[in-house]
Design brief:
Layout (H helix, E strand, L loop, with lengths): L1 E6 L6 H13 L4 E8 L4 H6 L5 E7 L7 H13 L3 E4 L14 E6 L14 E4 L2 H9 L30 E7 L4 H4 L1 H16 L5 E7 L5 H10 L6 E5 L3 H7 L5 E4 L8 H9 L3 E4 L2 H6 L7 E3 L4 H14 L3 H14 L2 H17 L1
Parallel strand pairs: 1-2, 1-4, 2-3, 4-5, 5-6, 7-8, 7-10, 8-9, 10-11, 11-12
Helix pairs in contact: 1-13, 6-11, 9-12
């Protein structure tokens, strides 16, 4: 089977990183192509693309209205003549002029344009929460759960007790985009945690933000205004190899999103064997089995987030829960299963 995945660009993001793993598995038994409409893809992402996967860039400059990159996209599709075109972001269907080729779309988040449903032969949701949103709008969207390559992620040694330390290192990995990812809420909570600890506890913390994005300057200004300069480090964009190698060395993964379709980085943290603290909306809650395997706070409430951070910092976390979260992640969110389910769905659509 010939499969073409189309994205706007291959940059460091949850959907793009998962795509790297999906195409690697699919390329074992199929001819797989990845097309980037824009030209400014990250070199680190292209270096991780499986050598069996053919990559093509249409070369569009960001914000350009030139028709030539779109013509190049469709010329490439006509040349390859794939059995199925798989898109991963909104509005890409407007760029594809090959109605005789089956088209599918993965919905990677909540708050999407439900109207895109009619432009595809089938849409897939990455979680039950995403599927439920579309169901409420009268659209039947099957779930193919997101997955990660658990074997690539270095995990902590559960048999060795981590020695207690006075400084705890927290981490968050995502785009710096407060509208969705909620880093501003986390900074407000960290200021409260700092005050609580300085009032009579020996514990200290350092918060590591890994990633880049349009709100980086605003978040750095918040850190200065709340006098958190000694408590917060902006690590910048790190490639996936760095994240997978170093995640296990942190004491807590925090995901403060205001909305989230799944929570791929949460699953990665569980596979690394570290505790997670997530917002209580449906996507991340699926990853921690509805709260059984991780800590949660009320979405959008930085006071509740701060309270959970204070409790964790002072009282710690049970090691047996980390083992259960690790086992649950490997059993339910392995990307090889995700890739196989997509292949099965492609065959069903092409046959129909």
């Amino acid at each position: 089977m010939k499969i073409v995945h189309v994205v706007w660009k291959m940059v460091v993001g949850g959907a793009e990183c998962m795509l790297l793993d999906i195409v690697r598995v699919q390329a074992e038994t199929n001819e797989v192509h990845v097309i980037s409409i824009d030209r400014d893809s990250a070199t680190s992402m292209l270096q991780q693309l499986d050598s069996r996967v053919k990559f093509y860039s249409c070369g569009r400059s960001h914000g350009s209205h030139s028709p030539f990159p779109i013509l190049k996209l469709n010329a490439y599709l006509c040349k390859v003549r794939p059995d199925v075109i798989h898109t991963h972001f909104g509005k890409i269907y407007k760029c594809i002029f090959t109605p005789w080729i089956a088209k599918v779309r993965t919905i990677h988040n909540t708050t999407n344009d439900i109207g895109e449903y009619s432009h595809y032969d089938r849409c897939f949701a990455i979680s039950r929460s995403v599927a439920e949103e579309w169901k409420q709008a009268g659209r039947d969207v099957p779930v193919i759960t997101n997955g990660i390559n658990c074997d690539l992620i270095k995990s902590r040694d559960f048999t060795a007790e981590k020695p207690p330390g006075d400084v705890l290192h927290f981490i968050q990995v995502s785009r710096l985009l407060v509208e969705q990812k909620g880093q501003d809420l986390l900074i407000e909570a960290l200021a409260i945690l700092r005050d609580e600890l300085e009032a009579g506890h020996s514990k200290r913390f350092v918060m590591h933000f890994v990633g880049g994005g349009p709100d980086e300057a605003m978040l750095k200004e918040m850190v200065i205004e709340r006098d958190l300069g000694n408590y917060v480090v902006f690590e910048g964009v790190k490639d996936r190899r760095w994240v997978y190698e170093n995640l296990c060395d942190f004491d807590l993964f925090i995901q403060p999103s205001r909305f989230e379709g799944f929570g791929l980085t949460v699953a990665e943290a569980c596979a690394a064997g570290i505790p997670v603290l997530v917002c209580d909306n449906e996507g991340p809650m699926e990853v921690i089995d509805n709260g059984r395997l991780g800590l949660k706070f009320k979405t959008g409430d930085y006071h509740d987030l701060a309270a959970k951070l204070v409790d964790f910092t002072i009282n710690g976390y049970k090691n047996e829960l980390l083992i259960k979260a690790y086992d649950f992640t490997r059993a339910n969110f392995d990307v090889s299963r995700t890739a196989r389910e997509y292949i099965h769905a492609y065959h069903s659509i092409v046959k129909d």
